[in-house]
Design goal:
Length: 113
């Protein structure tokens, strides 16, 4: 099983940007679908964005036009560029393949003034 390590979270003011990275321990080239999820304490994990091995993307309505998912199959990384951040984006963000495998530790994004 590929292990995933997320990084890049932090505290940012509303309207700011963050770039999250997900590093896989093995090749993701043969994984058709990768995604970023977010989870607020006490709530279910939600799918934020997905990307196919060919680069086709899909986004939750709440992040369309603000977030961009990308992947580098050669470097085994998946990235989430987050712009125009809002307080309601505050959550722990995880990446995973779909269907999901083992979860990483996630990275905390806090949007607050």
């Amino acid at each position: 099983q590929v292990q995933l390590v997320e990084s890049g979270g932090g505290l940012v003011q509303p309207g700011g940007s963050l770039r999250l990275s997900c590093a896989a321990s093995g090749s993701i080239a043969n994984i058709y679908l990768m995604g970023w999820y977010c989870q607020v304490p006490g709530k279910q994990r939600e799918l934020v964005a997905t990307i196919t091995s060919g680069g086709r993307t899909n986004y939750a309505d709440s992040v369309k036009g603000r977030f961009t998912i990308s992947r580098d199959n050669a470097k085994n990384t998946v990235t989430l560029q987050m712009n125009s951040l809002k307080p309601e984006d505050t959550a722990v963000y995880y990446c995973n393949k779909i269907p999901e495998g083992p979860w990483g530790q996630g990275t905390l994004v806090t949007v607050s003034s």
